[in-house]
Amino acid sequence: MYFETDYIYHIYNRGNNGEIIFYSKDNYMFFLQKVKKEISPVTEILAYCLMPNHFHFLVQATESSCSFYQPKSGKAIQMQTLVKKIALVLSSYSRAINKQEKRTGGLFSPKTKAKSLNLLQNKNDYLLSCFHYIHQNPFSTGLVEKIEHWEFSSFIEYLYDKEYLCNIELGKELLNLNEDFYVQSYIIIDEQELYPVI
Prior knowledge:
39% of the residues lie in helices and 14% in strands. By secondary structure, it is an alpha+beta fold. It has a single domain (8-194), classed as 2-Layer Sandwich (Alpha-Beta Plaits). It has a four-stranded antiparallel sheet. Strand 2 and strand 3 (54-61) form a beta hairpin. The chain is globular and about 50 Å long. It starts with 7 loop residues before the first strand and ends with a helix.
C-alpha cells in the first residue's frame, strides 16, 4: 500500500480463506477501539463497516498518514505511518483472537487492499457509491433487515450525527450528502458495479 496526501482510499481485508474474524460483540468493539487509538489520529475516516469475516474503511489520507513512521526509539523507518498503523492494528488483533480461540497462524489475508478512488474516472460518483456499498454490506448479505440495525458501521454515526471514528463533517462535504442520503442508502450497489474497470 502507498498513500498520497488528500487522496481517498477504500481499504479492506478479510479473514484468511474467508474465515470468521469477529466472534462476538466484544471482538468488534475491541477492533474499533484499536482503530480509534492507532488509525484515527493519522487519517480522516469517512466510513467503515465491520462484517463477521471482513472489514471496509473509506479514508482520506493526511500528511500524517503519508509521513514515514517513527517508533518511540525516534528512528524513522521506510514505511508510511498509515501502513504501519494498519499493520499494528491487524497484528495485535490477530494475537488477541488467536489466544481467545486457541488457534495459530494468520487471521487476515496476507495483503490488505487500498484502492485509490482518485485514480478512477468519475471519482465523485465512485466515492458516493463506495460509501453506500460499505454501509449496505450487512443488509445486502442478510445480516439485518435495515442498514441502521448493524451497530458496527458508521451508518449510525451519520444517521444520528454522532461521531466516534468518522469525521462526519468532512464526509458530508466530500460526499455532498443531502436529504437523499437515507433513500440512496437503500439502493443496493454490488461490488462489480463499484469497480467495473478493475
